[in-house]
Amino acid sequence: MTVLFSNLRCIGYVFAFCLSGVVLGLAANFASLFLPNINHDFTIFSLVVPSTTIFIFLLLLQFAQPIVEVTVHFILAVLWLTMGAWTLDFIGYVQCYGLAGQLRPTKNGTMSAETYCYEMKVIEALSWALFVMFALFFLIMITLTTRAVALGRVYAWREHTSQLGWFGQWPAYPTEAVYPRGPPYGYGPHPGTYGITAGGNYVQQVPGHSVVIQPGVNGAPAMITQVPGVVSPA
After folding, report:
1. Which of 226, 230, 205 is nearest to 214 (CA)?
2. pTM
């Protein structure tokens, strides 16, 4: 496990989880004040987005794979972008201090228009912040995973996310079941020898030899041979 990436990922997710909780609390307060007849659509949506975010975070504890997380990040980024744009459409560029002393109707009476304005501004700010966070999560996850694939981790999209390396670090040692297992203990490479994985098979390199891999024809398996000395690319 790459500790640095795992810690940074955990910090980022906890921060996003807390911000979503704040938005959910404010939305729940609006629901108690306005539903079912006032600001119905926006209030319902403001409850759904943070609730979905928190629920998905709990699912990621079980299904933490890059392919899953990239999909989740994209969906959540779109939801929070919509949330921020809708909140901006509702409150606009109103200066909240100018609403001091004014009242806003609720289902059971009235509330301070200034308080309502400030709470909407908080929801707007957190929505934009969460959109930016999930967009960054999306880009970082794609970058790290494609980098791991380029470094030889061909199954990186299906491995556990903790196996990814942070920028400037190598991915963790492949221990996932999606990788073909090498020779059993006692029959593996000895000190001073090297091996490669090709076509799903582990090939131990003989000392003083070069491993030559020739692509198969018409989908046939690659041909792997070992020749003495050093073979230079053609």
Report:
1. 226
2. 0.69
pLDDT of the residue at 207: 72
Element (H, E) at 162: none
Check pLDDT > 90 for residue 54: yes
Count the Cβ atoms, other than its own, within 10 Å of residue 25.
11
Q: Which two tokens stand for residue 63?
A: 């299904």
Place of tokens 């975010």: 53
Distance of alpha carbon 106 from alpha carbon 102, whole angstroms: 13
User: Which of 150-154, 163-167, 202-206 shows the lowest per-residue confidence on average (mean pLDDT)?
Assistant: 202-206
Q: Which of 119, 124, 126, 125 is nearest to 30 (CA)?
A: 119
What SS3 class is residue 22? helix
Tokens of 19: 């911000």
Beta bridge partners of 106: 109
